[in-house]
Amino acid sequence: xxxxxxxxxxxxxxVSGAILALAxxxxxxxxxxxxxxxxxxxxxxxxxxxxxxxxxxVAVTHSVFAVLDVALAVAILAFLATIGFARYLLRSHxxxxxxxxxxx
Length: 104
Hints:
The protein is mainly α. The chain has one domain (4-103). It is built from four helices and no strands. The radius of gyration is 19 Å and the shape is elongated.
């Protein structure tokens, strides 16, 4: 019988959590020092995706699958926020008023 520390699910969870944490630090750097607002929003979207991944890893590790609904809701909200910001950028970069009327 193997000790608890050699459980493959625990080892996989620790490795996954470490990779997600490293990716979150890199994305947080881009949020703070991003050269453009679009870079910052994409990095923030990446952070929310990493948060969803971390919630899924914790849910699988602790066998608490009820929090997967929360992860799904956060993912949907992050997607909608990114789409909204993309539409805002598209409209703010259009200088021709006639182009705004045609696309709207």
